Amino acid sequence: MTPEVSTPSTVPDAPAASFTNALKRFFSFENRFLAPMLITIILLVGQLTFGFLESYWKTGLAIAVAMLIELALGRLFFGKFPHLASAYISGISVGILVRSPAIWPYALCSAISITSKYVLRVKGRHIWNPSNFGICAMLFLAPFTVASLSIQWGNTIWPMLIVWTLGSIIIYRLNRFHICLTYVVSFIIFAAVRGFITGHPFLAEVAPITGPMYQLFVFFMITDPRTTVNSKRGQVIVAFCVALMEMILRLNETVHAPYYALFIVGPTANLIEMWWKSRH
Hints:
Distance between the termini: 75 Å
Mean pLDDT: 84
Order of helices and strands: HHHHEHEEHEHHHHHH
Radius of gyration: 22 Å
Helix content: 55-70%
Structural class: mainly alpha
Number of strands: 4
């Protein structure tokens, strides 16, 4: 009898498979540390390239206050300490987007942003993007002390490419490219409309969207999973309406038009969606 010779089965390379699985977990939706890491890199790129922070201390203060308020209110309202990734992003957004010679607006803006998540709720859901709400509140309440980021990238393209790349990774994880694309295309179309109405050159009207403030607005504010409507079609409609409202505000010479446009359209869309679901 001829002894049976077994053929060794093909075994995948264990280290390679382990690395692939670790990479998938790192970029998965469950990794809530990825977005804070990427937005921190964006901050460092912008600061080292153009110095668009007022100071590291003010940004650090905004982040610290956001996280402390999140811990306190999470414990008070829900009896547990929440994950701090969202608070970190809100704080770092305030640190980047708020411009003020004073220190207190950074702390107050972060406090207002996080508090709005817990106080301004409808059916257990907060309807305003926290950092957008806080920035709008500060621009309205302290217009002579607070402004928003307005530095342009100039003729240097690589910092913008870094922001686009890192922002795209986050948006890919959230499956929200359609929101960004709708807003950008709508902004460009409405820039042409504004130019026709006002007589301004098209390039002058479309130029703001190339600045760092708009990159953060497009990637991190209008795409916030907690404060966008649920349906993909609804998200596209809302992004278009934000761009439309911004055009209207710009034609009325509103300086901080994108923040106010999202402030008006975002919660209105959420309330309409809630009402529609309650009827059906």
